[in-house]
Amino acid sequence: MVKINPDHGAEIADGYDALRHSPNEPETKASYDALMSETREQYNKLAEGGLKVTKLKKNQVGYTTAEEMHNDIASGNLKYFATEHGYGANSEKFQDNPMLTGSGIIGEDGKEVANNDLFRIVHDINGHNLANKADFSPEGEHSAFLKHREQYTPLAGKALFTETAGQANWGIFNKKSGNKNMRLISQGRESEIEFAEQKAGLFPDSMINKEYHS
Q1: Which residues are CB-neighbours of 1 under 8 A, at least 6 positions away?
Q2: Coil, strand, or helix at residue 64?
Q3: Which residues of 39-68 are buried (b: 16+ CB within 10 A; e: fewer)?
Q4: Which pLDDT belongs to residue 194?
Q5: Which of 23, 93, 144, 181 could form a disulfide with 193 if both were Cys (CB 3.0 to 4.6 A apart)?
Q6: How far apart are CA 118 and CA 57, in angstroms?
Q7: Are 204 and 214 in contact (CB under 8 A)?
Q8: pLDDT on residue 44
Q9: pLDDT of residue 155
Q10: pTM beyond 0.90, yes or no
Q11: Per-10-residue mean pLDDT for the chain, 214 residues long?
Q12: Spatial distance between the Cα atoms of 4 and 146, rounded to a whole number of angstroms
């Protein structure tokens, strides 16, 4: 069971604020390449199992609760909000993020699915769903990170930390909008929260390997 430690959350949030966007540095590139490659492998297994994925239109409403999502997954379906419709704060600064590149997977609309979208699709299933149907609360997000981490190599796990634990803890514990975001989540208004800047960078190994919220 995950028990959220606010001091841990603040430490990760501060780390994310300090994180340097470094997509072209060898270590960052290697980790993100591994994350994207291993995510494609996971997605292919899900697709072979009959998963049907539907991209929401820009003004369509997605799942209002995690329970809705988990029920949909149980029926072999998953809807997702595409990166092209929204990509975090100050997205224009991070267009060189490798997660924006094409995954090689063609969606039902005939368009190539972005690596970011493919990862979020897979994370909803192999993270949230497998983590005892975790919700989108701080506890649920960290449980999903821990479960999904089991399915990646240590190299890919470095980028995974940024994309999951880093962004999720920033959303709740950052000094600028964390309290507001928490109120919105408690009111079921997740679509209104401020998302983290979509940096591609790596936390120090001392943080990546630390067991937070345990």
Answers
A1: none
A2: coil
A3: bbebbeebeeeebebebeeeeeeebeebee
A4: 78
A5: 181
A6: 16
A7: no
A8: 98
A9: 98
A10: yes
A11: 94 97 97 98 98 90 90 97 73 87 94 96 98 94 98 98 97 87 70 83 98 93
A12: 13
Write a three-state SS string for 138-163.
HHHHHHHHHHHHCCCCHHHHHHHHHH
Quote the crossing angle between the two packed helices 26-48 and 154-161, to the nearest 10°: 100
**What are phi and psi for residue 9, nearest 5 degrees?**
-60, -40
Instruction: Give the up-direction half-sphere exposure of residue 20: CA atoms within 13 A in the CB hemisphere.
Output: 6
Q: Which H helix or E strand runs over 34?
A: helix 26-48
List the chain domain ranges.
6-208
**Residue 211's CB: how many other CB atoms inside 10 A?**
7
Output the pLDDT for position 74: 98
Structure confidence at residue 12 (pLDDT)? 98
Name residue 1's amino acid. M
Supply the angle between the helices 26-48 and 115-122 in degrees, to the nearest 10. 60
- What amino acid occupies position 201? G
pLDDT at 187: 64
